[in-house]
Amino acid sequence: MNTRWDSFDVRNELSRLQSEMQKVLGRSGVLRGWDLTGGNAVPAVNVWEDAEGVYVESELPGLDSQDIEIYVTGRQLTLRGERKPPVVERGVWHRQERGHGKFQRVVELPTDVDANAVEAQFRNGVLLVKLPKRSESRPRKIDIKVG
Question: In this structure, which CATH number among 3.40.190.10, 2.60.40.420, 2.60.40.2310, 2.60.40.790 belongs to the domain 7-85+100-135?
């Protein structure tokens, strides 16, 4: 029996599994900051909405804005980037718990957004992405006619 392992990438499969688990459990916060791929630093996110838009906030300490890519497709926001491994000029590592390497985080959005009006701010290691709701997704007050 011949098994084709060259077409099976464990890291991709674990990343796919993580994405699926985030979809199922992510809203409850159960998987907050978990990384199943072994060493990468998958950023934690907060997601909330108001009448005007959806907001995604992510902690990305040690990164510069040039290290981060943001994509909006349909009802998904994707954060991609790379956290460089720390370099110690002299000394010996005793513990290294902060992840490094490339990461990707896909966030399911609760409603349709206007991808052309998305804004992102990066301040003190925290990324805030403001995604305005599409006009048809915003609550609209309906006047009641009498008579």
Answer: 2.60.40.790
Q: What is the pLDDT of residues 56-99, one digit of tens each?
A: 999 998 899 999 999 999 899 999 998 888 888 898 888 877 77
Ramachandran quadrant class, 38 (left: phi over 0; alpha: psi -120 to 50; beta: rest) = left
Radius of gyration for the chain, computed over Cα atoms and rounded to the nearest angstrom: 20
Please tell me whether residue 77 adopts helix, strand or coil conformation. strand
Q: How far apart are the first and last CA of the chain?
A: 80
- DSSP letter at 80 equals E
Q: What is the pTM of this model?
A: 0.66
Residue 92 neighbours by CB under 8 Å, 6+ apart? none
